[in-house]
Design brief:
Length: 349
């Protein structure tokens, strides 16, 4: 077995059945294996993957909740006597990246993984950054600087995003540019100095947040990632792509939970009678995080050189009853659309 195909410190994936979702997220980030083993002493109770967590969040769970409702109590496992060849065939059959090894008593004795070092992996899927907006809410800063070129600790936002994509294995980058787009191209050129290949499309007139996608090839069956070029997040593009493929989606929308706190006590009235009082209630909803995955055939629904925003496109696809699923974020995410957001990004980055 190759060294980079076996996780030697597999005991670090152990998690208690009483742990919180937040603790499991921390464990997954530390091990980078996308799986945690729920154990009692060493006996395997079940597993939790990144996908299990995101499905739980969509159903209304919070990161402070216990993991009991999202544990996969019937995971695919292999007994220690099975050969490595048998195990890898088992993983291939069930399309899984990690396989717990157990003894006859159900105790965990190892963890086999096929995950490779991302820096050694090439991902052929195209990653498209939408960088054509004027950034009006950041004026006068954006009067001479395109918003994606605003620097955070000496580095343009777009450079931070491109380097992040490159480190995950994405080297096919396309920039949909418009306002001050020539300044973006002058800085990045063909992308060679940044370890990627960059192609450009320049809007002759504003086409909205989705209009320029009509110029992409629709014959390709390889999903593409589309992301706003003005947001900072820790989520991995590769994880979103894998989710899209595994779920067999036509489109995937990355979403972020947004909570609104009412600063006042709310009085519920029925026919002039007070029936309930709630002190400073809060409400939550999911908002688009500005990252999407599309099967290119969908771009046939976009007319050339016509203005189209992303919301209109997605509602059109929903009306066609296509398979469109949400991918909820639990990672940090900042949309740099306001001066206050920019200050936060500079402080946290």
């Amino acid at each position: 077995m190759k060294k980079n195909q076996k996780y030697l410190n597999w005991k670090k994936t152990f998690i208690s059945k009483n742990a919180s979702i937040e603790k499991v997220i921390k464990n997954l980030n530390e091990t980078a294996l996308q799986i945690a083993l729920v154990v009692n002493k060493r006996k395997l109770i079940g597993t939790i993957t990144d996908g299990d967590i995101r499905r739980g969040l969509i159903k209304g769970l919070n990161k402070s909740d216990k993991i009991s409702s999202i544990i996969n109590k019937r995971p695919i496992t292999s007994i220690i006597q099975n050969s490595t060849k048998f195990d890898y065939n088992l993983m291939k059959k069930h399309k899984i990246n990690s396989l717990p090894k157990i003894d006859k008593k159900g105790n965990v004795v190892g963890l086999l993984t096929s995950l490779m070092n991302p820096k050694n992996k090439f991902i052929e899927n195209k990653l498209i950054f939408m960088v054509g907006g004027k950034g009006k809410r950041l004026m006068p800063l954006t009067k001479t600087i395109p918003k994606p070129m605003i620097k955070i600790k000496g580095k343009p936002i777009l450079e931070i995003l491109i380097e992040k994509a490159r480190d995950e294995g994405f080297t096919n980058i396309q920039l949909m540019a418009g306002y001050l787009g020539k300044k973006i191209k002058k800085y990045f050129n063909n992308g060679k100095d940044f370890g990627v290949n960059i192609d450009y499309y320049f809007e002759k007139k504003p086409l909205g947040t989705a209009g320029s996608l009509s110029f992409l090839k629709t014959q390709s069956k390889i999903p593409v990632i589309v992301a706003n070029g003005d947001l900072i997040t820790q989520v991995k593009y590769s994880d979103i792509l894998n989710y899209h493929i595994k779920q067999k989606n036509d489109a995937t929308i990355v979403v972020k939970k947004h909570e609104i706190m009412n600063p006042y006590g709310v009085v519920k009235i029925l026919r002039n009678k007070v029936v309930d009082l709630t002190e400073k209630p809060s409400s939550s909803s999911y908002v688009s995080a500005g990252i999407y995955v599309f099967n290119p055939v969908l771009f046939k629904n976009i007319k050339r050189n016509k203005y189209l925003d992303m919301t209109t496109l997605l509602n059109l696809l929903i009306e066609k009853r296509l398979r469109i699923n949400a991918y909820p974020l639990h990672e940090n995410w900042i949309d740099i659309g306001l001066h206050s957001h920019l200050k936060i990004a500079k402080r946290k980055q």
